[in-house]
Design goal:
- α4 packs antiparallel against α5 and α5 crosses α6.
- It is built from nine helices and four strands, in the order αβββααβαααααα.
- It is mainly α.
- It starts with a helix and ends in a 9-residue tail after the last helix.
- A two-stranded antiparallel sheet has the order 1-4. It has a two-stranded antiparallel ribbon with strand order 2-3.
- Helices cover about 50% and strands about 10% of the residues.
Length: about 220
């Protein structure tokens, strides 16, 4: 359900979702393998970072299974007692699967895939998007899919600032490249003297790496 909430934010499709007001909730949940737990990213409040260690991952997976099984038992007890489905469902975990018919045109589907296959997207929805792209769109409209990969997935588009920094680095003027970033407020210092976390700067650094440039402000 947490993945579906990200999915449904793309208001470019018509959707008919399975309703737990009219039918019992699907008896299936997303489970996390012990080696799949991720730590919170230190540079992105919406993202994740490295994996937790194996022992802790095992404990987390066992606790997850116990919680999900308990929630399902509570739900089924309420249903058996005649509680309304719309109320009985309220404590089901976000890991509960849902089902929906999702109707979208190709133009908007490619936009969805561009966003959700990107490495910044959450891993779970990225997995769904990758299957849709590679196993459905890639087979359905292979010429379109190859063009999509060529120009949007694997191509690089530069902002005005990125283009200016690339030009400066291409000319060997690292001081100018650094000055351009500083002028935009991207090189502010934290209290410990390091650069403050900045999402735009991190994206620029990733773009520069594609062209084989190291960000000069990183030393």
């Amino acid at each position: 359900m947490d993945t579906w909430r990200q999915w449904i934010r793309h208001r470019t499709a018509s959707v008919n979702e399975y309703s737990t007001r009219y039918s019992e909730a699907i008896d299936a949940v997303q489970r996390t393998a012990p080696d799949a737990w991720r730590l919170q990213s230190t540079s992105n409040r919406q993202g994740s970072g490295t994996r937790v260690d194996a022992d802790q991952g095992q404990r987390l997976t066992e606790a997850e299974a116990a919680l999900q099984e308990h929630a399902r038992r509570v739900y089924e007890t309420r249903i058996a007692a005649g509680v309304a489905r719309e109320q009985a469902r309220k404590d089901l975990p976000l890991a509960t699967f849902t089902e929906a018919y999702w109707k979208i045109d190709l133009h908007n589907l490619l936009h969805f895939l561009e966003l959700r296959m990107d490495h910044h997207a959450q891993l779970e929805i990225r997995a769904y998007a990758t299957v849709i792209g590679e196993e459905i769109v890639g087979r359905w409209v292979p010429v379109v899919w190859e063009a999509f990969k060529e120009y949007r997935r694997e191509g690089v588009r530069l902002s005005r600032l990125e283009a200016a920094i690339v030009r400066a680095l291409g000319a060997g003027d690292t001081a100018r490249a650094t000055a351009l970033a500083a002028e935009q407020g991207l090189l502010g210092a934290a209290t410990n003297g390091t650069l403050r976390t900045n999402f735009e700067r991190r994206e620029i650094e990733e773009t520069l790496a594609v062209f084989g440039f190291a960000a000069p402000w990183l030393g």
